[in-house]
């Protein structure tokens, strides 16, 4: 069971990184209030740099504190990815939403589904 939960967790982190790569291609910054009116080059740079602290904190915690904070990290990431999938669903008709391909949708909604499965696994373990 533990190996399966860890595999789902790692798969979900991988989906998150894939999604962020896809977000650059789809110019996700055009959906953000403060970035949507900027030139694409500047908005792209700000959007990309905004992810740096998220990645640093996420990787720092995983490398240094994971064994001590495992359940909390699992819960935070799972809840975030479920919320993230819901937000993408709510904004699916946004005029600047370019995540219309099956590829993008599979990545986004796989994170939410995998998080629900992971949370259920945590509950029953």
Describe this structure in words.
This protein has about 120 residues and is mostly helical. The protein has one domain. About 80% of the residues lie in helices and about 0% in strands. It has 4 helices and no strands. Helix 1 runs antiparallel to helix 4 and helix 3 crosses helix 4. The chain is globular.
**Number of continuous helical runs:** 4
Number of strands: 0
Report mean pLDDT, rounded to a whole number.
92
Structural class category? mainly alpha
Instruction: Sum up the overall morphology in one term.
Output: globular
Radius of gyration: 16 Å
Tell me the major beta sheet.
Answer: none
Give the H and E element order: HHHH
Separation of the first and last Cα atoms: 7 Å
Whole-number count of domains: 1
Provide the low-confidence segments as ranges. Answer: none
Strand content bin:
under 5%
Helix content: over 70%
List the main descriptive attributes of the protein structure presented here.
125 residues; mainly alpha; 4 helices; globular; transmembrane helix
Task: Please give the structural blueprint.
Layout: H1 2-25, H2 40-64, H3 66-90, H4 102-124
Helix pairs in contact: 1-4, 2-3, 3-4
Keywords: Membrane, Transmembrane, Transmembrane helix
InterPro entries: DUF6713 (IPR046559)
Pfam families: DUF6713
In short:
By secondary structure, the chain is mainly α. It has helices at 2-25, 40-64, 66-90, 102-124. The chain has one domain.
């Amino acid at each position: 069971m533990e190996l399966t939960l860890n595999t789902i967790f790692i798969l979900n982190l991988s989906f998150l990184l894939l999604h962020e790569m896809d977000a650059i291609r789809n110019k996700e910054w055009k959906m953000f209030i403060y970035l949507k009116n900027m030139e694409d080059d500047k908005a792209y740079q700000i959007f990309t740099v905004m992810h740096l602290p998220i990645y640093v904190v996420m990787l720092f915690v995983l490398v240094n504190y994971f064994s001590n904070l495992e359940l909390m990290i699992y819960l935070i990431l799972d809840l975030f990815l479920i919320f993230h999938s819901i937000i993408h669903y709510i904004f699916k008709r946004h005029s600047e939403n370019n995540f219309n391909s099956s590829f993008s949708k599979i990545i986004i909604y796989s994170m939410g589904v995998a998080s629900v499965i992971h949370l259920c696994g945590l509950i029953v373990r």
